């Protein structure tokens, strides 16, 4: 007779409760912990998580596994492993886990997937800041669904993405992981990524809850001091949207403290708000070693067990990535009566319920991942000789020593990576009309990132996250550099590139070989011999001599904890281009001024940098935020004109290196004014981006000039492509509230729509605006919609307002909560 917990006809929560009743305390605690295989060793002591070497543990069959295991940490993303070997190893680990505990319950396996599956050989998507630049949730959802399918096929159950932190100070190293500086954009794009992962059966994990990006001094892990209204206004809405509109089943706490209370021990956030106010029923997982940091960093606990007790009581269900606080140390406190056993039961029930939902409690569950159950001669399987060595390889079901070929970089995922990269490239300026480049015959290419694949890759891509620990390791996927891509894009042009000029800007920044891409034969690589002071300037003059145009390629190399110029733990004091790259721009402008050669700047990186001192001297400026493995062809396509740029800035580009923009959400006193000599106005504002065609915005109207505080109203406008080529306009809807009970931002985004149009074509764009979108918080949980006058502004950026539509809200003041309208539906009707 089947026990109730194995009866698949029963609800997941009922099955989990039955199994929980049968478990000992140690077995229940076993469901709350994780093990991180392979994390205690690594090259040169480098880590992909803080304190990894000191705090991680290996699998121990006779220790933890006999009580069961909640999670298995990063089986693909810790060390380089071929996809088929990693899949087989995960299967074998699950066999050990299942056989070691008396109920045969496997672990949930999780992986990072911020820029695609963070595994060697997997497709590398653009970084999330590029998702924001694309303003295309539908494409982001499509990408996430394919990423989720890859994860699921090899036996992964949970993805640690997306990041929903809102950019507040771009000096923060993790700016590249954010979607942008606007909560509405972050929430809608983040929810789309969640929907994609969840549609593939992957548990999406929202991070980092909450306030992490508001740290003092833009320092990683630093304290956050924001008021309850700012928390509710800026930091919480993306999480609300991703939970309600995306259906995320997991949340990860942040590292920071909020006004002195660490997020990992914040009962008000993790229980009162998340569960009691918002009704969240999934799991809360720790950011890596975050529970231990309650003792080791925050100093609010005096032992691992008491750190675990604080986190458990606050609402953390699973300790990641390894067990230290939720294991025997916590068990001792439960047995002594210091910690209530009910708290363990509460967390274990949530974990077991999720495992039941995933099928891990089913009697017919198999550790064989789906990809190992397929016939390789069937769809997608080929002939079994994936490496061309003559060995047909696996020919049946998976066995410990023979596995089918596993492709983590399939054509359909590369195609989505290409489209997302192309949509994310932002044309910031084209002052002299030099773009596209097709008519230029000889082009000088300067800068350290011109021929470096690292320019395309964020810190959560495998080559930059793990690969840098393994010198000589190939990237695993083809990542064409910008120079290689330009040579392919414009075969009739001659490209002159100097290694001496690259060295003048700090030296080549790639530290991983890219041997999957041949060097372009149409470029000329000048020898860089002289390294004396001034030699770099001389090389610039030599490189641009005879050129029709100069391209200067600058930006970031991503890394972790100071091993890069952007990425986790790579915070900066000011927004100056790193590694003296500004000197290359200065030299290029000096060398080209006499002969009148136009200079085009391409910025490839993870944050915006101050470009004000060159703005009026550059012919054109292009920005791309770590656009992934297809980023080189995407940027080259924009430069050549094959791709008409449609990206828009998800975060403003500052004018001055030390006066980074306050952020476009600033209140009136946060804008430029006579009270301060410091002007925070960005050089290029949020939402800005140019096209190679022109658009007319016509017939803007409101369905009615007034509406009740609880009734939606339609906003309509016609967009016409008045140029000679197809292009995509991004229509943005902003709200201005002139009078309110608390200080409001001058404008804020409440809707947007991508409008693709052929030359001469027009379309009606319709927004369904609900007054709930005009609500604002008086505290963390109190939010109101008040009657009065508003302005809806149709705009091409946060400063380029095309139409202003007055709207009056009538009726009673309304108090709204988590069930309020969060999204402005849009519709594009092409003629």
TrEMBL record:
Entry's Gene Ontology molecular function annotations: hydrolase activity
Q: Which family does it belong to?
A: Belongs to the glycosyl hydrolase 3 family.
Fibronectin type III-like domain span: 729-798
Any single Pfam family the record assigns to this protein: Glyco_hydro_3_C
Protein source organism: Streptomyces spiramenti
Q: Does the keyword Cell cycle apply?
A: no
User: Which named protein is this?
Assistant: Glycosyl hydrolase
Q: Which SUPFAM superfamilies match?
A: (Trans)glycosidases (SSF51445), Beta-D-glucan exohydrolase, C-terminal domain (SSF52279)
Is Hydrolase there in the keyword field?
yes
Compositional bias segments (type: Gly residues):
378-396
User: Which residue ranges are recorded for the region named Disordered?
Assistant: 360-411
**Domain of life (superkingdom):** Bacteria
Q: Which UniProt keywords apply?
A: Hydrolase
Q: What InterPro entries has UniProt attached to this entry?
A: Cellulose_deg_GH3, Fn3-like, GH, Glyco_hydro_3_C, Glyco_hydro_3_C_sf, Glyco_hydro_3_N, Glyco_hydro_3_N_sf, Ig-like_fold
